[in-house]
Write a structure and sequence with these properties.
heterodimer, A: about 325 residues, mainly alpha, 12 helices, disordered N terminus, Phosphate_PstA (chain B), membrane (chain B), transport (chain B)
């Protein structure tokens, strides 16, 4: 300490240093607590500021009219966003139908099938897939995949044309930019996140259960069916919900490949739009109430994704607790 | 009567499996392997397309020249976008990493299992799921409208919001790996908690924290949606982030990909190659750091 200039009262000096040190400790504690609270602060601010700014659009249409209105016509000041909600749900649900089984398969391959040496490479591939920027997926999607896949869409539409029901869902295609293309891109982007959570979930399956299944003479697949999957069901539901939340909020890749028409079509080969993609597409050319409406869509999207993510984390955590409780 | 010792041991080789069970097992294994191929295919496709189409545009002049103002004009130039990506992402890192690491210190050293810490942890996880465009809209409303113009710093703020929860959660994981003996030893020598944290805990976890932060930077560098909302879509780089619209590689890819002209599309591919190289570089450096200097391997 620097305050050693008063040798006649060493006890006092010591106390001074002690008090300062305690103060430093308290200050540090306050600082890190504040840093931790930033998370809550930012989330709260997002909700408040965007809601305030989007309020005029909510009021203009009425909350129900905004969410469930089917006509989006910024030039006439009509802002019904139901087609966007429809597009968001359709694309991300189809994406999950593809991504969830594939991700579970990859996670099983990594944890149960692959040797130690190959495991590392597969994990690297999945990690790299997660780091590819979404705009690059969009670029490859719109300039490579769309032209290449359009004939395949047409072929499939012709194939199912005589089948009632299916022919309405898979009908004529014009550009190749449509719900299905968007879903494919979303599926690829959701695979890494679902895979990583699924791996965590599988890692919590007690080794004794697996060994017990093998000891009873189970094949690997029977062990997976009997020991791993029943244990992991809750966690896998949570993982799928996290993937769903991610897919619903994905913006740029979808904006490039979905075609950008605000309409609701049962035909998945027709262009549509999603909430996030529409904000990005119309942002540059919007003003006034139109901008407010785009921000209001952001509020809606924020609410949906936060709820889904929150529920997903709860589900994953409960599944983990249940597992650890059963084990110890 | 055969005694136990002479009984043939049970056949565990699996050779006598019923055909149906063996078939089911083999089919399942093949399907599981197929899943890995399905995931690897898009990665290979993306990397191949970006490499083959982007390399024709690539070159030293591509990395430094200005971006042509006319979409139809052939020729190089992504210099401003590269500078923009580096400065805006760098600024975002300067904001997010200190706050994130301190927040992690709170969670692991002070908060632990208190209700507030648990709540912050959950909300940080939830925050990682907030769509990037919403972060852009947030900064637009609370910063761009307030100061009256789009600029680079707005983009840095939006990216910082995206990085913050990733940095907090990964840094907390790393702090948790620091052995308690180190903290006790430091406390035993009379160091205060803040001293212990700053001089013992954080340095021990530094490599892991760096690696997590780099991953967050890599993710932020590729973000497009918040950039076009808060920074704008232009072709100029401004070194002063607080003044005027700016640009990044991701924004240039989006801007050029939506044009029907070959020249602009070629620039988009070149920009994509640059961006992917940058992002992969960050990721690989991060993995090298985390595998070289991991605490548990010491």
């Amino acid at each position: 300490m620097t305050a050693t200039a008063t040798p006649e009262s060493p006890a006092e000096v010591d106390l001074g240093g002690e008090a300062r040190a305690r103060q430093a400790d308290r200050g540090f504690r306050a600082l890190v607590t504040l840093a931790g609270l930033t998370v809550l602060l930012v989330l709260g601010l997002i909700l408040v500021t965007t809601s305030v700014r989007g309020w005029p659009a909510f009021v203009h249409e009425g909350p129900l009219g905004f969410v469930f209105g089917t006509r989006w016509a910024p030039n006439d000041d009509v802002f019904g966003t139901f087609p966007l909600l429809y597009g968001t749900l359709v694309t991300s649900l189809i994406a999950m139908v593809i991504a969830v089984p594939v991700s579970i398969g990859i996670a099983l391959f990594i944890t149960e099938v692959a040797h130690r040496s190959t495991r590392k490479y597969i994990v690297t591939v999945i990690d790299l897939l997660a780091t590819v920027p979404s705009v690059v997926f969009g670029l490859v999607g719109v300039l490579v995949v769309v032209p290449a896949i359009t004939p395949a869409y047409q072929w499939f539409a012709d194939l199912v044309a005589p089948v009632p029901g299916l022919n309405a869902v898979f009908d004529e295609t014009n550009t190749g930019r449509n719900y299905i293309t968007a879903s494919l891109v979303l599926a690829i982007m959701a695979i890494p996140i679902i895979t990583s959570i699924a791996r965590e979930v599988f890692a919590t399956v007690p080794e004794t259960d697996k060994q017990a299944a093998y000891a009873l003479g189970a094949t690997r697949w029977e062990m997976v069916k009997g020991a791993i999957l029943p244990h992991s069901f809750g966690g896998l539901v949570g993982a799928s919900m996290l993937g769903l939340g991610r897919a619903m909020g994905e913006t740029i890749a979808v904006a490039l490949v979905i075609g950008g028409s605000v309409s609701m079509s049962a035909n998945l080969f027709e262009p549509g739009n999603t909430m996030a993609a529409l904000i990005a597409q119309q942002w540059g050319e919007s003003s006034g109430l139109h901008t407010d409406a785009l921000i209001a869509i952001g509020v809606e999207l924020f609410a949906i994704t936060v709820i889904i993510n929150f529920l997903a984390r709860l589900v994953v955590r409960r599944a983990e607790i249940k597992m650890k409780g059963a084990h110890s | 009567m055969t005694s136990l010792s002479t009984a043939t041991p049970p056949d565990l080789s699996g050779r006598n499996l019923s055909k149906r069970r063996a078939f089911a097992n083999r089919t399942a294994t093949i399907l599981i392997g197929l899943c890995v191929l399905i995931a690897a295919l898009p990665l290979v496709l993306v990397v191949w397309e970006v490499l083959s189409r982007g390399s024709s545009a690539m070159g030293l002049d591509f990395l430094v020249e200005e971006i042509p103002r006319n979409y139809r004009e052939a020729g190089p130039g992504m210099g401003p976008a590269i500078l923009g990506t580096l400065t805006i992402t760098g600024m975002a890192a300067l904001i997010a990493i200190p706050i994130g690491v301190l927040g992690a210190v709170y969670l692991n050293e002070y908060g632990k299992n208190r209700p507030l810490a648990k709540f912050i942890r959950t909300m940080a996880d939830v925050m990682t799921g907030v769509p990037s465009i919403v972060m852009g809209l947030f900064i637009y409303v609370s910063y761009v409208i307030v100061i009256g113009e789009k600029n680079g710093f707005g983009g840095a703020l939006a990216l910082a919001c995206l990085m913050l929860p990733i940095v907090i959660r990964s840094a907390e994981e790393m702090l948790r790996l620091v052995p308690d003996e180190l903290r006790q030893a430091s406390a035993g020598l009379g160091a205060r908690k803040w001293r212990t944290t700053m001089t013992v805990v954080l340095p021990t976890a530094s490599s892991g924290i760096t690696s997590g932060a780099l991953l967050a930077v890599a993710r932020a560098a590729g973000e497009t949606a918040p950039i076009i909302v808060t920074v704008g879509l232009t072709y100029m780089f401004k070194p002063d982030l607080f003044y005027g619209e700016n640009t990044t590689l991701a924004a240039q890819i989006y801007r050029n990909a939506t044009q029907p002209f070959d020249a602009s599309q070629e620039r988009a591919w070149g920009a994509a190659l640059t961006l992917i190289a940058l992002v992969f570089l960050f990721t690989i450096v991060s993995r090298v750091i985390s595998s070289r200097f991991a605490i548990d391997k010491r």
